[in-house]
Amino acid sequence: MGSSTSTALISAVQVPVTFLSMLEPEGLLWPKQAELQNNTAYDYIVVGGGSAGCVVSSRLAESGKNTVFMAEAGDDPPIIALVPGLFSLLPRSKYDYDYRSTKDTYAAKGQNYYTTLQAGKMLGGSDSLNHLLHTRGVPSDFDTWADITKDSSWKYDNILQYFIKSERLVDDPILKKYGKYHGTSGPMGISRQPEDTQVANLLKSFAEVGNPSVLDLNAENTLGYTQPLFMIADKKRQTPAYSYLKNIKTNSNLFVSKNTRVTRIIFEDNKAVAIEAVYNGKTYVFRANKEIIVSAGVYNTPQILQLSGIGPKEHLEQFNIKVIKDLPVGNNLIDQVSVTLVYKLESHIAFLPNLADVELDPTKVPFPVLVGSVALNKSQTDPDYQTYNLLLGQNTPFLTIACAQVFDLRDGICDQWQTEVTNRDSLYTVAALLQPKSRGTVRLASTDPSQAPLIKTGYFTNKEDLKTMVKIIKDFTSVGKTKYFKKIGAELAGLDLDVCADKKKGSDEFWECYILNHAGSPYHTVGTCPMGDVLDGQLKVKGVEGLRVVDASAMPKIPRGAPNAAVIMLAEKAADMIKSANAN
């Protein structure tokens, strides 16, 4: 099945009644639309109803003492957003901002020169369409945040409580061995999927090349390969739009306005006092008695701040925007640039001819997944790269769905891989550089808030990143020399590239060529309004009053893992800081 056919299949998938019956009627799942009146005042205004926005709004509203208004540019998530096995249906739908980078003829060749950048446009934001992984990063990441902010409260030993507070872990082996690192009564359910024989063989192979099998990368061991934790519990995706808001969605002090685009923040005497927003074609002003919290995401938060006069002075003046505060907003975009590799694995006598013959449980991720955190120098305690490994059955469309629909690589790349793995299982691997030195930017394209911002990824602009990625590929592909891989005749697919034909296969020059033709985003972008440069350690915007940023853009350094778990931790901590600052 080719990539274009697989992509078309995505839009034709029907959701069986047998598992829809486990869900509540869609209209009861989410907070109702607030009735809006111009110049209404609330204690707190939260701009953005994504991962962080849902967490902050929930915690600020749960006591019933304060009024909380949350404005979200998207709508309610579709009911399929709660179905883990259907995560591939949401990218590039109306529930995704579906941003593209500016043209990049150097590092975006595998995506027709424009890197795809997913960002959820619905309650729960990217947590309602992401790949469900729950990886925290490593302790030194957060200790570095504490150093940058000169605020010891960000040290790992101090923020661990917020990871624990957010979680409801459903996994007896992990709880028995690492229970002190996890929560069992938090809003967000997390769990693992069962192991199978092929996963066990892969784990043994990675251990054979120095990467031990570990039970839990979110506990004491931060290096090795594991079957990861997912944001899945009770057969549902645990997006904060559901897991956090479900218990307070009918509270009389919580006001949620969907399909509401915040166009700017209004300042009086250097204090953020209100927001301007558009709903159903009408412009409203909503005032904040205490604070405004911007949680619009790594791309939209800097856009809103810049439209409001907070950003690089020269850039704002180009658009005749009054400068409230000259700050490097949008200057520090960090993404764990990734490259995809595909291994041909076992061949079976009996094989599945089409998707109709595949028995799927839509309440689970539809294939086994392994996550590896690996240090290039085996004496290190922190990883340099992370791999996300999908074990895909032969002659099913999952490879081209992952390649073309989820990661948006060119059809030619996806079709070549699919052709080469015919009648064989495959290992689809996304290898991500955890601590890139390259930086991108987010800038205004115009003063029209509905126009997408200009996003430069900056991938490999620091040449050291490309050299490190070559080392990563060489380190990862050493697994091809292990007993199991040799026994089944495993080999890499898709290496016959016309564009790299003048390079010796396996040489550094070949791998550099391969990387630049297969690179993309793992959708782990952070850092566009970082603590230290734009925010203080309390997440307050420097030089103004009444304004904080609470989302992935606040991170001064990217965690060594998918940032989602750290975003939720950050929002939990922020809620406590906000409540403490406004206790009187």
Domain module tally: 2
In the CATH hierarchy, the third-tier topology of the largest domain is known as: FAD/NAD(P)-binding domain
Radius of gyration: 23 Å
Q: Describe the sheet with the most strands.
A: 7 strands, mixed
Count of extended strands = 24
Number of helices, where a helix is a run of at least 4 consecutive DSSP H or I residues: 17
Instruction: Name the CATH superfamily assignment of the largest domain.
Output: FAD/NAD(P)-binding domain
**CATH class label of the largest domain:** Alpha Beta
Low-pLDDT stretches are 8-24, 350-358
Going by CATH, the architecture of the largest domain would be: 3-Layer(bba) Sandwich
Name the average pLDDT.
93
Helix content: 25-40%
Strand content: 15-25%
The dominant shape is globular
Distance between the termini: 63 Å
Helix-strand makeup class: alpha/beta
